[in-house]
């Protein structure tokens, strides 16, 4: 089964010129700990609640800080034609619960979550990803 068959297509994103407060509000309304950052249909980064609450606060940034100052620009993505097993393995290695999905033109076309994998599959993919996400991580490198 391909990830395009289980991903969420209606992806909510934030722009790099929006404030951290706006990004946090979107995360709250979507009940998500991370949001893709896009310019048009191009994925340029991800911002997480941890980016805002830990890194931002540690550096003394306020709620008006722009998303571009806090986001992670090097984003691990899934391709829409990848198998769910391969994507689950990627999610496990990267220890992420949500992963953006891009098409062959590098355009953001969806997002896949552990919940999507669990709902739509009857194999070990979601379990594999969850085990990796839940495992103790190494040193965090978030700039």
In whole angstroms, the N-to-C terminal distance is 36 Å
CATH T-level topology: CBS-domain
Uncertain runs = 138-143
Strand residue percentage? 15-25%
Instruction: Please report the first level of CATH classification, the CATH class.
Output: Alpha Beta
**Widest sheet, order of strands:** 3-4-5
Q: What is the name of the CATH superfamily?
A: CBS-domain
Q: How do the SSEs run, as a string of H and E? A: HEEHHEHEEHH
| Second-tier CATH architecture | Roll
Quaternary status of these chains?
single chain
Can you offer a commentary on this structure?
This protein is α+β, with helices and mostly antiparallel strands. The chain starts with 19 loop residues before the first helix and ends in a 9-residue tail after the last helix. It contains six helices and five strands. The relative contact order is 0.21. A hairpin with a 5-residue loop joins strand 4 (98-102) and strand 5. It has a three-stranded mixed sheet with strand order 3-4-5. It has a two-stranded antiparallel ribbon with strand order 1-2. The longest helix is centred in the N-terminal third of the chain and has 11 residues, at 20-30. Keywords: CBS domain. It comes from Sphingomonas anseongensis. This is CBS domain-containing protein.
């Amino acid at each position: 089964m391909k990830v395009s068959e289980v991903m969420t297509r209606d992806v909510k994103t934030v722009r790099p010129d929006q404030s951290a407060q706006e990004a946090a509000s979107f995360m709250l309304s979507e009940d998500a700990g991370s949001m893709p950052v896009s310019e048009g249909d191009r994925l340029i980064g991800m911002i997480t609640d941890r980016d805002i609450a830990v890194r931002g606060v540690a550096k003394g940034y306020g709620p008006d800080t722009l998303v571009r100052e806090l986001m992670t620009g090097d984003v691990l993505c899934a391709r829409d034609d990848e198998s769910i097993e391969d994507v689950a393995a990627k999610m496990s290695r990267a220890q992420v619960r949500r992963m953006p999905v891009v098409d062959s033109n590098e355009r953001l076309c969806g997002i896949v979550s552990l919940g999507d994998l669990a709902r739509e599959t009857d194999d070990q993919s979601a379990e594999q990803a969850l085990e990796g996400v839940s495992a103790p991580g190494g040193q965090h490198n978030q700039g």
